[in-house]
Design brief:
The protein has 261 residues and is α/β, with parallel strands linked by helices. Helices cover 47% and strands 13% of the residues. It has one domain (13-258): 3-Layer(aba) Sandwich (Rossmann fold), CATH 3.40.50.720. The chain has a seven-stranded parallel sheet, with helices on both faces. It is globular.
Length: 261
């Protein structure tokens, strides 16, 4: 059994949570340029207003501004109700929002870790729980969640970020298994290093760094093709997938040798 892809984004009703910058902004611009109806969600409403104005000036698909904080479930539910009231339904949920705080054992902070888990794992779960009942009744729809290759295995400076993304991988795998017979498609998105506001705080070399626009193209092409496991850039994500199957002594040697941070 294979899950559904999408022939075109034109006219599709798409909710992007985390649309105000980075990968989310790049995806939103590409989708609006293709004629999609895009609901833009993030906390920074001023950034969303600028994006909506740009879409209008370029005669792109329509933009709906739905400001919210993903860690406040009531705001997520209210935002979805706004979409339902105006559009009558949703074709794609694209959850991009995330928090990255570099943490190692010598500077580990509980509050920073909790904030990371709440935003990166509990947030997506809340959004999925909100939209899923309607998609199940309609026997169609797409749920796409941006995780990270940092969820594959333990990596330096990711003492909270890595576990949050590992949780996303497990969540998406189980969601895919449950939803495959229902007609609802799941897309697990695992980017490598992407040039964004979050990665700008890194003080180390980032192998195979790509732009947000390149990441957006990889994501949207993967969704179109109905792929579950969307990971990129392959030269880096494929290498990390390979490391997962190695015995731990060899794995940690590779990490120190090639990802020395």
């Amino acid at each position: 059994m294979k899950q559904n892809g999408i022939d075109t984004f034109f006219g599709k009703r798409i909710w992007i949570i985390g649309a105000s910058s980075g990968i989310g902004e790049a995806c939103a611009n590409a989708l609006m340029a293709s004629g999609a109806k895009v609901a833009l969600s993030a906390r920074r409403v001023e950034r969303l207003n600028i994006m909506a104005a740009k879409a209008k000036d370029n005669h792109w698909g329509s933009a709906l501004i739905v400001p919210l904080d993903v860690t406040e479930q009531s705001q997520v539910e209210e935002g979805y109700q706004t979409i339902l009231n105006l559009w009558g339904g949703l074709d794609i949920l694209l959850f991009v929002s995330g928090v990255y705080v570099p943490l190692r054992a010598d500077n580990f902070e509980y509050e920073a870790a909790k904030k990371t888990i709440d935003a990166n794992l509990i947030g997506p779960m809340g959004a999925v729980a909100t939209v899923l009942p309607h998609m199940l009744r309609a026997h169609c729809g797409h749920i796409a969640i941006v995780g990270s290759v940092a969820g594959y295995s333990g990596l330096p400076k990711a003492l909270a970020y890595g576990p949050s993304k590992a949780g996303i991988i497990n969540f998406c795998e189980t969601l895919y298994y449950d939803l495959l017979p229902t007609g609802v498609s799941v897309h697990m998105i695992s980017p490598g290093f992407v040039a964004t506001e979050a990665t700008a705080q890194n003080d180390f070399y980032m192998p195979a760094l790509i732009s947000a626009d390149q990441a957006a193209q990889a994501i949207l092409q993967g969704i179109k093709k109905g792929k579950f496991d969307i990971h990129f850039p392959k030269r880096f994500s494929g290498f990390l997938k390979f490391l997962r199957i190695l015995p731990y002594p060899i794995y940690f040697w590779f990490v120190r040798r090639f990802l020395a941070i």
